[in-house]
Fold this protein.
Amino acid sequence: MKVIEHIKKAKNTSLFSFEILPPLKGQSIQSTFDHIDPLMDFAPPFIDVTYHREEYIYKEQPGGLLQKKIVRKRPGTVGICAAIQNRYRVDAIPHILCGGFTKEDTENFLIDLNFLEIDNVLALRGDAVKNEIYFNPEKEGHHYAKELVNQIVGMNAGEYLDEDLKNNCSTDFCIGVAGYPEKHMEAPSLMQDIQQLKKKIAAGASYVVTQMFFDNQKYFQFVEQCREEGINVPIIPGLKPLASQRQLSVLPHRFHVDLPDELTQEVLKCKSKAAIREVGVEWCIKQSKELIQYGAPVLHYYSMGKSDNIQKIASAVF
Ligand code: FAD
């Protein structure tokens, strides 16, 4: 079932969902199931699975020369989605990127998803490859998520890259896209970023999932601005419980989000890792309760491979 149908069916009740990462290459899928199992008590209608593109690593050779190697540390997005749908009977949403994909790769990826009866995708541009400053598309790939949305919408209408194909089967994907309450790092202003978001919706995306934020006011203002600009699709807030002191600098650096001073002070007072995780959980519970009161369609948690804190939050909120 499509995300948009789940939201309609819930009739103004906030749903619970979460995002997982595929395990590191070499680990078993059991680690993923162990992570998902305790969260199934909260009846997620869908689970997102991130996509991790290739990275370049440099290996020192005898004699000191560096050999460049291309690695994918977390493959398996499509396989995990299929396994989730099969094991839990819950919709799995693979993330699909422009980065690292030619249009042909994208088409073939979507064909696989269609055969596996996966009805939803989250269409993203992807970040620059590690060691590069700017995002570079493949030669035959897409520059922006909006172009990727166009291709998926085309396949939903039976349009494939090879114009000579006959009797094409149409896909029927529900497409989500990313939104940034605190602006995407490369956008010149929040308003310009919202204009680009508006184009992704006009191209055929049906809902937005936001980057994590720690101050609900940022989300409320973002939703208001989106509505003023004529973006009327559901905007799903993305939430992450803070879990370590290191994240006080890692999260702003990696995700370009602000951490409220009150939260930072609480974390700095903690004497143990467990105490910090507790502060993160309590903060996220407070955020979640306020978002439900506001009428957020779904609360979407970035679990990042740990379920104990998401479980505590969900127990307190759902
Ligand atoms: P776009 O919508 O293409 O926007 C990228 C930038 O370009 C923005 O600054 C936008 O304002 C600007 N822009 C857009 N169109 C134009 C245009 N025509 N002209 C000029 N500027 C333009 N990354 C992964 O690698 N794997 C994942 O699984 C993943 N999951 C994510 C899930 C969520 C909910 C979110 C919020 C992010 C996720 N990301 C993931 C990170 C994401 O790939 C990066 O944030 C990426 O830098 C931007 O992706 P986007 O789809 O928002 O890009």
Summary: The longest strand covers residues 91-97. The domain at 3-317 is CATH 3.20.20.220 (TIM Barrel).
